[in-house]
Design a protein that fits this description.
It comes from Maricaulis salignorans. Keywords: Chaperone. This protein has helices at about 5-10, 15-30, 40-55, 60-70, 80-85, 95-100, 105-115, 115-125, 140-145, 215-220, 280-285; strands spanning about 130-135, 145-150, 155-160, 170-175, 190-195, 205, 210-215, 225-230, 235-240, 250, 265-270. It is of the alpha+beta class and about 300 residues long. The protein has three domains: about 5-125, Helix Hairpins, CATH 1.10.287.110; about 130-195, HSP40/DNAj peptide-binding domain; about 205-285, HSP40/DNAj peptide-binding domain, CATH 2.60.260.20. It has a four-stranded mixed β-sheet with strand order 6-7-11-10. A three-stranded mixed β-sheet has the order 1-5-4. A two-stranded antiparallel sheet has the order 2-3. Strand 8 and strand 9 form a beta hairpin. Helix 2 (about 15-30) runs antiparallel to helix 3 (about 40-55). Residues about 75-105 have low confidence and may be disordered.
């Protein structure tokens, strides 16, 4: 059999609706009831019907197209004849003479021609399309979790339960909140991508939270108990005597939830901050010398 696209007069990129419209037009013009005793029209009608049955079935159409790309002949699908691909159902080929003998009209005939196509749609209802949206939340909201409202494409608002410890780029799926397919069926899902805004002081490292904490020279040298912000609120931290800039201190369990019933830590990096103008400190350092042999750059 010839190329089904050529038989229906449609492009290989034709949509299902374009294929259906082309078929209806040809079928009405070529139907045996409209062309009594016209063998050529009857033969063309059979070919048009077979071409439509192949191209209206997404699976068979895909197999046929794959066969063409693989180099099979115009009437062959991937590994099978076109006739076998279309005439292999339990219904068999149409019997046009029997149709006329039963005095059935065009409406009944077209009902038969679309029965297989419609039955297939009923047997495998299509799921609606998923919709996507971005939800931007602040750093502390990601740490604690909670409910947020987000507006989906189309204007409908839904409530999203963000888990504590949510990660940037994490996608939450709201089942059944997507689009409903034409003619009914299962709605798609809403996919909500979490974006976490930067924080002024905190940063995230896996489940750990990092913070740079300025301390005075005396706090670093002599040690001190200082107030430190965390995602749960401020706590006190003991700075050991003789701490240098860059020293790391750990606050256990003050990080993000790990999803395993545990939490990460908060890593505090000390930064010694000196005043811009302190004459007393300047005068002291002019008379102070480090211990003999001390060289902070010895390892460089």
């Amino acid at each position: 059999m010839d190329d089904p696209y050529q038989i229906l007069g449609v492009a290989k990129t034709a949509t299902a609706d374009e294929i259906r419209k082309a078929y209806r037009k040809l079928a009405k013009a070529l139907h045996p009831d409209a062309n009594p005793d016209n063998k050529a029209a009857e033969e063309r009608f059979k070919n048009v019907s077979q071409a439509f049955k192949l191209l209206s079935d997404p699976k068979k159409r895909a197999e046929y197209d794959a066969g063409q790309r693989a180099g099979f002949g115009p009437g062959m699908g991937a590994g099978q004849g076109m006739g076998a691909g279309m005439g292999g159902g339990a219904r068999g080929p149409f019997n046009f003479r029997q149709t006329r003998q039963n005095n059935r009209g065009f409406d009944d005939i077209f009902s038969d021609l679309f029965t297989d196509f419609g039955a297939q749609a009923r047997e495998a209802p299509r799921k609606g399309a998923d919709v996507r949206q971005i939800l931007t939340i602040d750093f502390l909201a990601a740490a604690s979790g909670g409910k947020h409202r987000v507006k989906l494409p189309g204007g409908r608002a839904v409530e999203v339960a963000v888990p504590s410890g949510a990660a940037d780029g994490q996608v939450l799926r709201l089942r059944g909140q997507g689009e409903t397919p034409p003619g009914g069926g299962q709605a798609g899902d809403a996919l909500i991508e979490i974006r976490i805004a930067d924080h002024r002081h905190f940063s995230r490292d896996g489940d750990d939270v990092r913070l740079e904490l300025p301390v005075t020279l005396s706090e670093a040298v002599l040690g001190a108990k200082v107030r430190v912000p965390t995602i749960d609120g401020p706590v006190f931290l003991q700075v050991p005597p003789g701490s240098s800039s860059g020293s790391l201190l750990r606050l256990r369990g003050k990080g993000f939830a790990s999803g395993k019933g545990k939490r990460g830590d908060q890593i505090v990096r000390l930064v010694v901050a000196l005043p811009a103008q302190d004459e007393a400190l300047r005068a002291f350092l002019q008379t102070w010398t480090p211990a003999s042999g001390y060289d902070p750059r010895k390892g460089l």
